[in-house]
Amino acid sequence: MSLEFVKLISQVQTMGGYLGHRAHTLTSRLATALAWYHAAGDADRVRDWVKLVRDPSVSGYRGAAHVPPPYDEAPNLRARSGEIPPEAALIAADGSQIYPDPHGAALYYLTNIGVFTTFYGLPHIPEQMTLPELAYTDTLLEDKDGRTVTNPTINARRTIAEIQQLAAHAHQRAAQFPQAAIFALHDGGLLKFFSPTEISEAVSLEKQYLDGLADLYAADAVLAGYIARTRSTSVVSLLHLLQLEPDEITDDNLKTNGAAEGVTDADLFARVLGYGERSALFAQNSPQNATYGKLNSAFEIAFFYINVGDIRPQIARVEIPMWVAQNARAVSALQAVLVAQCAVQGREKYPYAMTRADELAFVKPVEKSQLDEMVRVAMRQESMDPERSVKLESKGMARAGRQSHRLG
What residue segments make up the domains of the chain, in order of their start? Predict the structure, then answer.
């Protein structure tokens, strides 16, 4: 049966009214957040108030915090773009996956990592490569309890492979071009959470991820995690915190952002950042980030927002490890590289190198079908029957029958 749109008319109209009311309310809350932002010029107050929320009696604050010296930026700082170094290599890595199909001819999963490298001021054409990896052994397909590994586990393994490839290529380019700046772009945030309830061997995978960060640190790479569509409210939470008196800083008062509740950081910075400008540098106040910092102070994750939209504001969140955040020249150069990369794209701004890495990594449905056929051929060569399960075949026949009936 087709979707009965007549039954949705009243629901859609109600939805429209809700969205209109929400937009109207958001406008007034955004005005409040903007007033807070323009008044937030005191870096000392930020340090003092963040110190208060880091008291053991207050555990619920997950907003932005200050970045330690040499940076001492007020929350309302706006920094113009710097210049791309005379010689630089930009490496972008992205990945995709095919999850295990319990009804397939054989159980497996695939990860495919795409790496794209482009160069500035060097006599070198862009390079690209892919690294497809097929996982089919029991060791890779099963957790310690003998169950098929979860999709989040496969995602985590793919993420680690992306970071490892960024590190390997960073070392390669650093050796090839000793005078060049090495930039490494990762799609998504750098502060990763490996949930033991969702991810097999979460502790081991987190260690591998941190080892990847250490390799990038050793390569002196300017690492950045790029988040194009962020819903974060970290900075708005900081601005709300600054409105509270010390005796008002409690978990209850930090559960919402008060009069600016619902306003995102992207909403805020779309109104204040000019094209190519970045926000102040911030650190994320969270137990996980504190753990990164305790392991190595260079691994704590900082971030800033940047406007890469030349026609209309397009705000991205850029996460960087502290070894980059505490290098003013590296931050300025990264800002310039991101602006230049996004300028290559069309209306929807995104770093060109990351777009190319994503295209390299993406596995098309037809390619998945071809891989399945290759698996079936390999099984036949070993005298195995690659027929799909009776359950799935029955589903397919039933669906085909319904389609035939409709067309006939």
Answer: 44-361, 365-407
